[in-house]
């Protein structure tokens, strides 16, 4: 990840801004919690609608699974749910995610969900005193329809 874990106060601040964003009209940010059947929080998922250009109809996803739950397929399920929300519920045309070049698990998860690796954004994210590239993966609505029709 491009950031360090926060302390309680910082996390409360983030949760507060997530709750405020959920009330925006129109809503452009969906920060969702995933729980297992026992109620344990196992993953965080986020869909942010792109708003820079008025003719865009796309959204960026982000996701994180609780570390002691890695490798059970939860990441894959979360990415699929985000795609369902984006394409089936919101009618977006493009969903994309940006990962660190060394984040192979994220590459696997997005690849398995049908997200195609499309290139590198150089110097995308500030990390410490420097900048990190991001590898971008995306899936388009026709590709999603083909996958879900299969
Ligand atoms: C990336 C992340 C969400 C994956 O969650 P997960 O629940 O473990 O995902 P899944 O179990 O569905 O799949 C993990 C895949 O990564 C693979 N994997 C795990 N560790 C790996 C490693 N070190 N190198 C390469 N692949 C690895 C697994 O084999 C699996 O792929 P496969 O099913 O094709 O074999 C999780 O590692 C995470 O939360 N990381 C920190 C946050 C993060 O990086 N978020 C993504 C930002 S773009």
Task: Give a verbal description of the structure.
The protein is an alpha+beta fold and 150 residues long. It has a single domain (8-149), classed as 3-Layer(aba) Sandwich (Aminopeptidase). It has four helices and six strands, in the order αβββαβαββα. A six-stranded mixed β-sheet has the order 1-2-3-4-6-5. Helix 2 links the parallel strand 3 and strand 4. The chain starts with 7 loop residues before the first helix and ends with a helix. 19% of the residues are buried. Bound molecules: coenzyme A.
CATH superfamily: Gcn5-related N-acetyltransferase (GNAT)
Q: Helix share of residues?
A: 25-40%
Oligomer, anyone? single chain
The molecules bound to the chains, other than polymers, are:
coenzyme A
The count of β-strands is 6
Secondary-structure element string:
HEEEHEHEEH
Tell me the name of the CATH class: Alpha Beta
Q: What is the correct CATH architecture?
A: 3-Layer(aba) Sandwich
Mean pLDDT: 96
Query: In what order do the strands lie side by side in the largest sheet?
Result: 1-2-3-4-6-5
Name the structural class. alpha+beta
Low-confidence stretches: none
Provide a brief overview of the structure.
This protein has 150 residues and is of the alpha+beta class. The protein has helices spanning 8-22, 74-89, 104-112, 141-149, and strands at 29-35, 41-49, 58-65, 94-99, 116-127, 130-140.
Question: Which SSEs are present, and which pair or pack?
Answer:
Layout: H1 8-22, E1 29-35, E2 41-49, E3 58-65, H2 74-89, E4 94-99, H3 104-112, E5 116-127, E6 130-140, H4 141-149
Parallel strand pairs: 3-4
Antiparallel strand pairs: 1-2, 2-3, 4-6, 5-6
The chain binds coenzyme A.
């Amino acid at each position: 990840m491009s950031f360090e874990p926060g302390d309680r106060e910082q996390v409360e601040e983030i949760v507060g801004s997530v709750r405020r964003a959920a009330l925006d009209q129109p809503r452009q940010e969906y920060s969702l919690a995933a729980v297992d059947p026992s109620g344990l929080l196992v993953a965080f998922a986020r869909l942010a609608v792109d708003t820079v250009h008025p003719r865009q109809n796309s959204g960026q996803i982000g996701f994180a699974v609780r570390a002691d739950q890695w490798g059970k397929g939860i990441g894959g399920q979360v990415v699929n749910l985000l795609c369902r929300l984006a394409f089936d519920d919101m009618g977006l045309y493009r969903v994309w995610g940006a990962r660190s070049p060394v984040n192979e698990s994220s590459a696997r998860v997005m690849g398995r969900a049908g997200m195609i690796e499309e290139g590198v954004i150089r110097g995308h994210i500030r990390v410490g005193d420097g900048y990190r590239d991001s590898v971008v993966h995306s899936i388009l609505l026709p590709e999603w329809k083909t996958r879900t029709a299969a």
